[in-house]
């Protein structure tokens, strides 16, 4: 038994180490040796001669998309194997072992070379805009400060912010800690999200211990060792980790009967990234003393007002985080739009608007039915997880892989077998689907269709087969020893 435990732990660590190597191969496949030397000079204080000689002497096949795509697929499959091995033996791990394992994986991924996960550069620059330039990120794009030494790292130079105002205060504080060096800035932001992932793992345990104590360690491992969450919390520095942290704090405080502090934490989650607002109606439904609901809503409104106030420039301010780039990608709406463009270009716009109206209406109806069926914390977690799944798979017109992290804590806390297995499948296929991009280095429509087939195909088939939108009378909990 000890050997199997050690196997799961070291397979996960091997996968993390190989994920670091993947970034090197990815840079080689995109840039070639000269380009990688240029990248090294860009991000490192110096580029030693031995590194230049090493890069110049590498074989040509390391510069191909087929190599980096195949290597990436191997890494994700290794992640999946290690993760499933850990789940199988989760009841044999102690809390300490799970946390130490999570900390080990986080420490390894901390050294992931910057480049692929480049959202962190936008976070750094927006933090500098707020802290140093006193600029409003909802109305001022990074391009307004093109003279800044950090500007060259930013990927979305002409876009205004799509995040909540609390995140901008967090960005500003982290920027002030990071200093004038870009590597120092990356380290501060990455350390922040690393700590949040560890805290989230502990919160999952603490919440599950209150609901189902015998399953708490299992839930802890399911969250802390999940490859998608590790990759985007640590290597990717995703601000979704902060949104999830405040969501979990809100749930934990509520279970401790600290209702009003819970309301403030949940409001903070929404003020980091707006999509956690979907959970609020289910949270309010679980309040036993209905007299507390108006005061909870008042506290949320007051917190929202105070955090938004410094950025306020009229009513249009509140709509600014909901901008889109104006195109569809990696979504069901994209697939529909693409097919209609091939079949009937003239009617494409009308057909797409009809689909979006139909999907939005169906989603609102499903949300209403789910809210009415909510009777307890168990059912609120389950229904919210199901809604997030369908939001991600069929409703959003544009979607990124890290959005799948929104679903994971609720599905894991619910421990309902159907939604949990769908969510875990989604987290692994979401990572594996990126193989298509690494093979071909293209977001062309045909490759997007292939990516979507790998990403949403298996979990959607499982969701429809098991009819996850229909809650069972007696929830089918995952029992110890089941995958």
Description:
There is one protein chain. The protein is mostly helical and about 475 residues long. The protein folds into 3 domains: about 1-90, no CATH class; about 110-310, no CATH class; about 330-465, no CATH class. About 65% of the residues lie in helices and about 0% in strands. It contains 20 helices and no strands. The chain has helices at about 1-45, 50-55, 65-90, 95-110, 120-130, 165-180, 180-210, 215-225, 225-235, 240-255, 260-270, 280-285, 290-310, 330-345, 350-375, 375-395, 410-415, 415-430, 435-440, 445-465. α5 packs across α6. The longest helix is centred in the N-terminal third of the chain and has 42 residues, at about 1-45. The protein is globular. The two termini are about 15 Å apart. Residues about 475-483 have low confidence and may be disordered.
Put the structure in a nutshell:
The chain is mostly helical. The chain contains 20 helices and no strands. It has helices at 2-43, 49-56, 65-88, 95-109, 119-131, 165-178, 182-211, 216-224, 227-235, 240-255, 259-272, 280-285, 292-308, 332-343, 348-373, 377-395, 408-414, 417-432, 435-440, 445-466.
Q: Tell me the β content.
A: under 5%
Poorly predicted segments: 474-483
Radius of gyration: 23 Å
Would you report the number of β strands? 0
How many domain modules? 3
Task: Please count the helical segments.
Answer: 20
Q: Mean of residue pLDDT?
A: 87
Q: Return the string of H and E elements.
A: HHHHHHHHHHHHHHHHHHHH
Characterize the main sheet.
Answer: none
Shape summary: globular
Question: Helix amount, in percent?
Answer: 55-70%
User: Which secondary-structure class do the elements indicate?
Assistant: mainly alpha
Distance between the terminal alpha carbons, to the nearest Å?
17 Å
